[in-house]
Design brief:
alpha+beta; 5 strands; 3 helices
Amino acid sequence: MKPRRFLRAAAIAAATLLAACAARPVVVATAPVTPALPYEVAAEPERHAGAEVIWGGMILGVVNRESQTEVTILAYPLDEAQRPVPSAGTRGRFIIVLPGYVERHDYPDGLFVTLSGRLAGTRAGRVGEHAYVYPLVEAAHVHRWPAGFQFDRPHWHIGIGVGVRL
């Protein structure tokens, strides 16, 4: 009987450990999320109007308007923990619309964010001398990543075999 109890306890401990290591989302959508990317939404805004998104990227700038703040983001794909992956290449640009005044110090250029929100149209703008259409996202939740977050991942290497290094 004792070996059986030990096996059960070991199985429970292993399951708990695996659950603790699972990536948890940092933002949650209130409705089903569209898989569209910012550049796809910019190309066909009417097709995606009002859709929920979970996007992320790097802050390029902040503009405080009279009743809202707009944060321009360079989009990157997200990993399983909803962290932006800068090494994977960009996915376009978009603007986060936040109610009221937001202190620029809290959203500095170069900071990475992940957000959930609803698509609220587009805005024509420019990137350098090129015309650009920015999707607008009314943010429900914005998660700001600490500097260096992309280097904080655990690195696991498990292998069996014989190898030769030169």
